[in-house]
């Protein structure tokens, strides 16, 4: 008979300050780190923490903590990267949910597997990536996603989800709606191309490459260009607390979009794939409303990128939340657009 899985160590009144990129100092009533589904199942079977909600934790890069959590915070530390299948054109690469996303991207780029190089330097973990359908510079997770394995919290069955069942949308998925709070994502598999699929048309990638006189870029060149762009615009959470983009870029039906573009001819805008809707940069709207570089105590708006709210030191989650609500109200008044929050508020 196999040996029973030992219960992982559970901590009480555990500070989450080092585990969220905003650097907000709140505590979890209980905290545990799990390295396998079997470990978590042993914890469930013990019944010891059934009296509190379980909150799953990745890199803490897409969350704003506004209060202590009366919960068991479960840090997903399932690691490992492996090739599970390949043919002449593609390779299927599966990674544990706890793998740092950027480390995974660099791993694929180093192996010359194309598909996610435009997503370099996005904070967070592999397991959180499909929940958000993360995207940047013209690429989204769904473009190279093959399947994921998720543990159902009630049936205790490991289920396979393909792209259709994940119901991907713009920063959306099944796991943020109907599946919210029902699954623990354990592994994610991507189908990547052995031939470079270069995409440089979005953002400043092409400009950065041209400045380096790189006319036929490799995926390594694209990845490095994205890294440099992000580092020039976004603050390092180790230096200034932040969660990257705080708001989603709004999309409008074509008729409403045309009214907005007529009123503001200089407004940047982008088509939405598979739709007649038009997407507008939330950062541009926020900057036009005068918020860029704004600071109230230690809560502020980054001076180089208005889409990023920051903690300059000792701001509370409530203070940053209040600032975000003021910005949303301002954008609604000026542009008639309701901004949606991209980060999760806890």
From TrEMBL:
Gene3D superfamilies hit by this protein: 3.30.465.10, UDP-N-acetylenolpyruvoylglucosamine reductase, C-terminal domain, Uridine Diphospho-n-acetylenolpyruvylglucosamine Reductase, domain 2
Keyword Cytoplasm: yes
GO annotation, cellular component aspect: cytosol
Cleaved signal peptide residues: none
Record: active site: 171, 245 (proton donor), 342
Any one GO MF annotation of this record: UDP-N-acetylmuramate dehydrogenase activity
Pathway: Cell wall biogenesis; peptidoglycan biosynthesis
GO biological process, alphabetically ordered: cell division; cell wall organization; peptidoglycan biosynthetic process; regulation of cell shape
PROSITE patterns found in the cross-reference section: FAD_PCMH
Cofactor: FAD
Reaction catalysed by this enzyme: UDP-N-acetyl-alpha-D-muramate + NADP(+) = UDP-N-acetyl-3-O-(1-carboxyvinyl)-alpha-D-glucosamine + NADPH + H(+)
UniProt EC number: 1.3.1.98
Domain FAD-binding PCMH-type: 23-195
Highest taxon of source: Bacteria
Keywords: Cell cycle, Cell division, Cell shape, Cell wall biogenesis/degradation, Cytoplasm, FAD, Flavoprotein, NADP, Oxidoreductase, Peptidoglycan synthesis
Subcellular location field: Cytoplasm
Coiled coil: none
Function: Cell wall formation.
Family membership noted in the UniProt record: Belongs to the MurB family.
Protein name, as recorded: UDP-N-acetylenolpyruvoylglucosamine reductase
Gene name per UniProt: murB
């Amino acid at each position: 008979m196999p040996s029973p899985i030992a219960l992982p160590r559970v901590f009480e009144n555990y500070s989450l300050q080092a585990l969220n990129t905003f650097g907000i100092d709140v505590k979890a009533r209980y905290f545990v780190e799990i390295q396998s589904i079997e470990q978590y199942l042993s914890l469930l079977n013990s019944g010891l923490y059934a009296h509190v909600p379980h909150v799953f934790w990745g890199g803490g890069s897409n969350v704003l903590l506004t209060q202590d959590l009366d919960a068991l915070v479960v840090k997903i530390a399932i690691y490992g990267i492996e090739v599970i299948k390949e043919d002449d054109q593609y390779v299927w690469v599966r990674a544990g949910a706890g793998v740092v996303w950027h480390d995974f991207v660099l791993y694929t780029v180093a192996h010359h597997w194309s598909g996610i190089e435009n997503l370099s330097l996005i904070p967070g973990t592999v397991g959180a990536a499909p929940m958000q359908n993360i995207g940047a510079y013209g690429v989204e997770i769904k473009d190279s996603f093959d399947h994921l394995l998720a543990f159902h919290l009630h049936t205790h069955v490991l289920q396979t989800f393909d792209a259709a069942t994940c119901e991907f949308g713009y920063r959306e998925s099944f796991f943020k709606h109907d599946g919210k709070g029902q699954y623990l994502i354990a592994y994610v598999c991507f189908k990547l191309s052995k031939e470079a699929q270069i995409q440089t048309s979005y953002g400043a990638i092409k400009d950065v490459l041209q400045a380096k006189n790189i006319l036929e870029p490799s995926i390594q060149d694209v990845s490095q260009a994205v890294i440099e762009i992000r580092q020039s615009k976004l603050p390092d959470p180790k230096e200034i607390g932040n969660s990257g983009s705080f708001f989603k870029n709004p999309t409008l039906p074509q008729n409403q979009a045309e009214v907005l573009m007529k009123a503001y001819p200089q407004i940047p805008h982008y088509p939405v794939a598979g739709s007649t809707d038009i997407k507008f940069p939330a950062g541009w709207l926020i900057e036009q409303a005068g918020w860029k570089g704004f600071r109230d105590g230690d809560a502020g708006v980054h001076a180089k990128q208005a889409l990023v709210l920051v903690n300059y030191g000792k701001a509370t989650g409530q203070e940053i939340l209040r600032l975000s609500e003021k910005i949303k109200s301002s954008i609604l008044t000026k542009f008639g657009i309701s901004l949606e929050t991209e980060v999760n508020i806890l």
